[in-house]
Specification:
Blueprint (H helix, E strand, L loop, with lengths): L8 H5 L3 H4 L23 H8 L6 H9 L5 E3 L6 H14 L5 E4 L19 H15 L4 E5 L12 H21 L3 E6 L8 H10 L7 E4 L7 H19 L5 E4 L24 E2 L5 E3 L24 H9 L2
Helix pairs in contact: 3-4, 4-10, 5-6, 6-7, 8-9
Organism: Streptomyces flavochromogenes
Family: Belongs to the glycosyl hydrolase family 6.
GO molecular function: hydrolase activity
């Protein structure tokens, strides 16, 4: 592993004080062990461009989407998870780049929203899966976003299921801390329009946030970076007041260039946002949701399935119409 120690003083000095001094689960900083973020060579946008070189939309999608670093999502479709995660971070490591991975396989996943329902067959099956995920990453540098929506999506769960979910999340954090010491893990905290900052702070803490590096915001949504920064700071204020600590946060900017129109599922007229980078009002701005991939059978993606690449939606998102 080639390790390039690069100072982040300038980036950190731009952050709110609470974020700059937030405690970390690990001493290691994967951003200083790599030379930039990894671009997935098998992203849906890249695959579509390669398969459709004569399509008039290909140049724009290639330039604006296919060559932008973004997260790869892992779930049941990934096959043997330890092998899949290990291969991905290994490829990134061979290029001295930092990969962003999303673990998306929690038991009763999206049980309230429904468009991305599924996940592990039981809490114990999830524990096995996530342990293998962490083991696949091992000591290579990585960023992991842990189970989008899992802490905001409580509306149809009973208290027993909520406690079970909290146990799955805290158990996952323990595995990453044990097996993947150079990985920063972020618990997902929904978005500014979903759960109040006070409620989210409590949910994050009860799920083990103290063991994590930080929390993530706006995954697969459209709220502006400024709105997310205000919300993240409000969550940190609640964490500080109630529990005596704060945490860094990252924002998914993949589709927030035009902000939100109140719709969350394949909303029309949205636009790609600031590409993946350090800083920008948060610890990092990341493309976590791949622009152009459907949220499900809804909105401008009517007739599609969650995760399906929609070239027309992708093309329009580049220009914001």
């Amino acid at each position: 592993m080639r390790r390039r120690i690069r100072a982040l003083v300038a980036a950190l000095s731009a952050l709110p004080l609470a974020l700059a001094v937030a405690p970390s689960a690990h001493a290691a900083d994967p951003t200083t062990m790599t030379s930039g973020f990894y671009t997935d060579p098998d992203s849906s946008a890249r695959k579509w461009v390669a398969a459709n070189p004569g399509d008039g939309r290909s140049p724009a999608i290639n330039t604006s989407l296919a060559n932008t670093p973004m997260a790869r999502w892992f779930g049941a479709w990934s096959g043997t998870i330890g092998t899949a995660a290990g291969a991905y971070v290994g490829a990134a490591d061979s290029h001295d780049k930092l990969p962003v991975l999303v673990a998306y396989n929690i038991y009763l996943r999206d049980s309230c929203g429904g468009h991305s329902g599924g996940g592990a067959s039981s809490a114990s099956a999830y524990a096995t899966w996530i342990a293998q995920f962490a083991g696949g990453i091992a000591n290579r540098p990585a960023v992991v976003v842990l189970e989008p929506d899992s802490l905001a999506d409580y509306g149809c769960l009973n208290q027993t299921q909520i406690r079970e979910r909290q146990g799955m999340i805290s158990g996952a954090l323990a595995e990453f801390n044990r097996q993947a010491p150079n990985t920063w893990v972020y618990l997902d905290a929904g978005n500014p329009g979903w759960v109040s900052a006070a409620t989210m702070a409590q949910r994050l803490h009860e799920a083990g946030l103290r063991q994590a590096h930080g929390f993530s915001l706006n995954i697969s949504n459209y709220y502006t970076t400024a709105q997310n920064t205000a919300y993240g700071n409000a969550v940190n204020s609640e964490l500080a007041a109630r529990y005596g600590y704060t945490k860094p946060f990252v924002v998914d900017t993949s589709r927030n260039g035009n902000g939100s129109n109140g719709e969350w599922c394949n909303a029309a007229g949205r636009r790609i946002g600031t590409p993946t980078r350090l800083g920008g009002g948060a610890e990092m701005l990341l493309w976590i949701k791949a622009p152009g991939e459907s949220d499900g059978n809804c909105g401008v993606g009517t007739g599609s399935t969650a995760g399906q690449f929609l070239p027309e939606a992708a093309y329009k998102m580049i220009y914001g119409y």
